[in-house]
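Structure tokens please, single chain.
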Amino acid sequence: MANHEDPYCVFTDEIDSVKKYYVSFTDGNGDFQKVEVNIEIYTALEESRKNEKRQTNFINRHVEHTELSEEELLMRAQPVHIDEFAKREQSELIRAAFLSLTKIQRRRFVLSHVYGMSYEDVAQLEGCRFQTVSRSIKAAKKMLTESLQIGG
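Here you go.
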């Protein structure tokens, strides 16, 4: 079941020895929806959920949550080749821009641009209108473009 932290939930059910795949979520009207999907969509959404959980766990485990002075940071720094530094910084900018999107925008953007689903298919999956998905993805693209132009 979807909740305020996870906008959707994927799960399986076996009926008469046939495995079925589902996505549940609360639509824009606040109504609970349960939609049967194919295995590709199920796998894509489940992998996206797992990746987000991995990122959260990584941050909780490996990111120091204390403030350090500039002097302490410089003492910890290791020399890095300028090309590697530029690549790392660019990768971080892209990641930060993507994470600045809402979970719904990220999910719709990934379904459309990574997994090749049409806006109509994404709208049908989420139980909303095509225009809603279109506006959401356009807003995500605009935010990504603006974030990356400012950062790089």
